[in-house]
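Milestone 3.1: sequence recovery, worked example.
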């Protein structure tokens, strides 16, 4: 099955390393080129804004899903194809999962990690079986990957984590998984 829609979870801030923004823009350009719809958190700041703007600037289609409480905080993006304002974070995540064929995780903070681990948990519980790609730009997730390996080594995971979570160092490497 060809991937038609990818959910991207990432920071509403750009972070301290220029590579994060560069990767978000490269991902957005690739999605537009491949005619893959972007589903994301609906903001116009940080990496969220970078990926959405790159898709839009290259003729792609973007669906943003933002909870009411974050409309002002994350500066709801008014220049995307479609913006869905929902009641809360739980509805946002559920809707994003329903609208995508797979997920890509870029650098981000607490919310991004929440989204990553909820998707992984839902995969483990067979609520869905969508592919999850961790884009480890500039080694951002090295410590997290080491911790996931530690959870496995200590016997806290029910299955091989690498069957559920694919690690890519670049957008070019990610193309293999489409």
């Amino acid at each position: 099955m060809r991937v038609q829609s990818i959910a991207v979870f990432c920071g509403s801030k750009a972070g301290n390393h220029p590579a994060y923004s560069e990767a978000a823009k490269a991902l957005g350009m690739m999605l537009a080129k491949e005619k893959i719809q972007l589903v994301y958190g609906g903001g116009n700041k940080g990496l969220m804004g970078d990926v959405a703007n790159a898709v839009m600037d290259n003729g792609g289609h973007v669906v943003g899903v933002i909870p009411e409480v974050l409309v002002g905080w994350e500066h709801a993006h008014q220049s995307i194809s479609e913006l869905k304002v929902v009641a809360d974070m739980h509805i946002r995540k559920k809707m994003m999962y329903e609208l995508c064929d797979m997920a890509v995780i870029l650098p981000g903070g607490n919310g991004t990690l929440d989204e990553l681990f909820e998707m992984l948990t839902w995969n483990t519980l067979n609520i869905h079986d969508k592919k999850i790609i961790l884009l480890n730009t500039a080694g951002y997730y090295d410590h997290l990957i080491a911790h996931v390996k530690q959870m496995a080594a200590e016997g806290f995971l029910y299955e091989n984590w690498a069957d559920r979570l694919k690690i890519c160092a670049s957008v070019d490497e990610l193309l293999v998984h489409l």
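The radius of gyration is 15 Å. The helical segments are 18-33, 46-57, 89-99, 110-124, 142-153, 171-174.
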